[in-house]
Amino acid sequence: MATHLDLDEQEQLDQLKHFWNTYGTLITWVVLLAAGAFVAWNGWQYFQRNKAAQAAALYDEVERSTQSGDVERIQRVLGDMKERFAGTAYAQQAGLLAAKALYEKGNREASQAALGWVAQSAVDPGYKAVAKLRLAAELLDNKSYDDALKQLSGDVPKEFEPLVADRKGDIYMAQGKRAEAQAEYRKAWTGLGPASDYRRLVEFKLNAAGVDPKSLAPVITVTPAAPKNS
After folding, report:
1. Which secondary structure element, helix H or strand E, spans residue 10, and what is its range?
2. What is the 3-state secondary structure (H, E, C) of 108-146?
3. What is the reported pTM?
4. Angle at 22 between CA 21 and CA 27, to 5 degrees
5. Separation of alpha carbons 17 and 14, rounded Å
6. Within a 10 A sphere around the Cβ of 59, how many other Cβ atoms?
7. DSSP code string of 146-214
8. Is there a contact between 164 and 152 (Cβ–Cβ < 8 Å)?
9. Burial (CB count <10 Å: 0-12, 13-18, 19+), residue 88
10. Closest CA relative to residue 72, chosen from 107, 100, 104
11. Structure confidence at residue 49 (pLDDT)
12. For residue 223, what pLDDT is reported?
């Protein structure tokens, strides 16, 4: 009986050795890769958290710089943000915030540079659209009409389409292109919808462009009910 058990154990041992000789290296590599992926994932998560914390701290510095109105400091801190954390939402927000402060301080060139960077580099399409709209407005103030229109070319998120149309209408009106302005204001008015407060401003612009907004409202026809048979 003992001999039989010894033979069974030896056979199982031989099978195990054969299995390990055949698949042992593969199993080892799979285990090592899985362990490496786990370590790498944890390391990546730590890196991302650490990076986000650093970006947030630098954004706070941008915010303090804009509040103090120190133009040189604003540009220096924004430069650090762009260099170290360009792909973060904090950098995009910092670019918009810095551009506003620089514009208010009369540094139009630096403001436009900051907005241009956000418009080109922002990962979030919403931030990109905001930067394009604001940059187009500044270029309009400078009478750089063609450059302003270029900023508004291309696709934007659907919710920004009426605002882009409205800004295009402003540019065309400044150029004296009334027909083009009317077309863009119509798009803006229709796209904003009746619940939008901004639509009232577009109505004033339509009137100035020679269009009665009431003429754009859909006509609701009521079909009279058929007379009942007595």
Report:
1. helix 2-68
2. HHHHHHHHHHHHHHCCCHHHHHHHHHHHHHHHHHCCCHH
3. 0.71
4. 90
5. 5
6. 20
7. HHHHHHT-S---GGGHHHHHHHHHHHHHHHT-HHHHHHHHHHHHHHH-TT-SHHHHHHHHHHHTT--GG
8. yes
9. buried
10. 107
11. 54
12. 45
Give residue 118's pLDDT: 94
Q: What percent of the chain has pLDDT over 70?
A: 72
Q: What is the mean pLDDT of the chain?
A: 80
Please give the pLDDT value at position 163.
Answer: 94
Task: Return the amino acid letter for 66.
Answer: T
Handedness of CA 123, 126, 127, 132 (dihedral sign): positive
b/e sequence 168-192, b meaning 16+ C-beta within 10 Å: bbbbbbebeeeebbbbbbbbbbebb
Residue stretches of the chain with pLDDT short of 70: 1-14, 16-20, 23-24, 26-52, 217-230
Residues in the chain: 230
Burial of residue 163, with CB atoms counted within 10 A of its CB: 0-12 exposed, 13-18 middle, 19 or more buried = buried
User: Which CATH number, 1.20.840.10, 3.30.1840.10, 1.25.40.10, 3.40.720.10, labels domain 52-144?
Assistant: 1.25.40.10
What is the torsional sign of CA 63, 65, 68, 71?
negative
- Residue 92 tokens read as 């995009």
Other CB atoms within 10 A of residue 112 CB: 22
Amino acid 39: pLDDT: 47
Per-residue pLDDT of 17-59, as tens digits, reads: 666 677 667 666 665 555 554 444 344 344 345 566 787 888 8
